[in-house]
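User: Hi! I'm a student and our assignment asks us to look at how structure tokens line up with a sequence. Could you show me two examples?

Assistant: Happy to help. In each example below, the sequence comes first and the structure tokens follow. Example one:
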Amino acid sequence: MDRSKPRRDPYQRGQYPAAPDGERQFDELEASSLFCPKCKAAVPVRKRLLLVLPEGERYEYLCAYCSTSVGRKIEEVKNKIQLIQTP
């Protein structure tokens, strides 16, 4: 076995250069499967809109088999909602 190269710790921070300013690799992540405590397994999920808030939209992830809530997420909106109040 050739051991001339030292082994790198894959969990070490800073081993990859950061993305330049303004460039992001991911804007939003979307869950496709999560652990369901009722089914006791990783299962596919459905995404359901719960609330529309000024800071974003709140979603709930539901188990595709038993409809148990398995997670939540807030997607931030690019344009902030402004509430207009009249006296």
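Example two works the same way, sequence first and then tokens:
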Amino acid sequence: MAKVVIDANVMISAAFGGKPLEGVGKALKQHDFFISESIMEEMEGVLKRLPKKLSAEQIRYLQEKMRQFLEVAHRIPVSTRLSLSRDTKDDHI
């Protein structure tokens, strides 16, 4: 069983279905799912910006899906910083 970390934007996209949901669903069923405090903060930031683009009903749906993801996630501290991403702000994972 692999240890899987899913980016905040992929998790948010998964709440709307399609390929992101398939990938996240597969990861949740077959692997251990981990999330860091910084990914949770990123998700909160994205959710705060979405009301400009989505209806209240869509926001509620998305918040519920995020709650479900977080219920099964193992929370882990980030103790080491690596520079792996082309986008340095994504190196917090």
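Here is something you could point out in your write-up. Residues 56-72 form the longest helix (17 residues).
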